[in-house]
Amino acid sequence: MRSVREVIPELGKSLWVTNRDILNGGLFLKPNAKVLYVDSNLGSNNNTGLEPGEAKATLEAAINACTANAGDNILLMPGHTEAVTSTSTNFDVAGVTIIGIGSGSLKPTFTFAATSSRINVTVANCVLQNVRVQAAVGDVVTAFLHATAAQNTQYIDIEFYATSTFNFINEYTLGAANISDGCRWVRNYLRTADAGQLSLVVTAAAHNDLKFQQNYVVHAATVAGLLVAGAAELLGLDVSDHNFVQTGQTDGSGGVLVSTSGTASSGRVVDNDMKTADAAANVAVPIASKIYAARNYIAGADEVGTVIAVGTLFDNT
To answer: What separation in angstroms does the CA of 313 have from each of 135, 266, 293?
Structure first.
């Protein structure tokens, strides 16, 4: 039996590692879980997907070969690329973990070439990690749409590439109330000069226990960077652990990290960094929301950073 320390380095060198190696190495926990490979360069959707040499060509084909909530894992090979349409890619098998292998230009990349292009998420407990998402047209409506029960989905190390010409209006759209409860965003990266860019995550409905950690968002729009929630109530919101947001807001009083006009939310917004074009009136989240906020560092248009004392501007009691 090979140890996980022996298996993981090989994933970065030569990906000719068998399912038995991975499972025996302890990289994946469920003993009966499948490991499927996806490679647009060498794969075919007629392949089994169960070995690197038998890789599928598309993520959709690999997802269709998974079993719901069985702990199945999909490995996207270095250099894998896919074009996304409005129907081509669907997270519709619950409990699947999808991991991209590679960094820099070899990071698996999904390209959105129409304004309606999107990845549809309709099941719970999926994980997507280490992929690049890029727009090839202006004003893609959203990259990920939570259409039905998408609870506890995790997005980790997702890089969004956009310009003032090729861009997304927003990256994640959460649908009806509570279908995105428990979802988590960690180390998402977005930098765009597009003033029409909305928040990283947008919703008009209430969701519970949303979590944001270590995300980086820089955009030119006059809206909150991480989450725009309309009038929705957000119970158990957790925005913490050094998220960084820079926006084009000239009035930061509506919330630089999170905006909602709801008045019965709960949770915390703590230990984050913000920059806006407003030198005076920034808040991390609206005070009336009842979400606790503290230790958020703010730099305004004058480039002078200030720490707002707990109990003054951020007194949400």
So the answer is: 38, 17, 9
The pTM of this model reads 0.88
Q: Which residues are CB-contacts of 187 (< 8 A; sequence separation ≥ 6)?
A: 156, 157, 158, 213, 214, 215, 216
Q: Which amino acid appears at position 208 of this protein?
A: N
| Domains in the chain, CATH or no CATH each | 4-220 (2.160.20), 222-317 (no CATH)
pLDDT in tens, 102-155: 999 999 999 999 999 999 999 999 999 999 999 999 999 999 999 999 999 999
For 1-14, b/e burial (b = at least 16 CB within 10 A) is eeeeeebeeebeee
CA distance 214 to 269: 12
Yes or no: say if 243 and 272 are a contact pair by the CB < 8 Å rule.
Answer: yes
Cα–Cα dist 155/212, whole Å = 10
Q: Does residue 43 contact residue 75 with C-beta atoms inside 8 Å? A: no
Instruction: List, for residues 40-91, the tens digit of each pLDDT value.
Output: 999 999 999 999 999 999 999 999 999 999 999 999 999 999 999 999 999 9
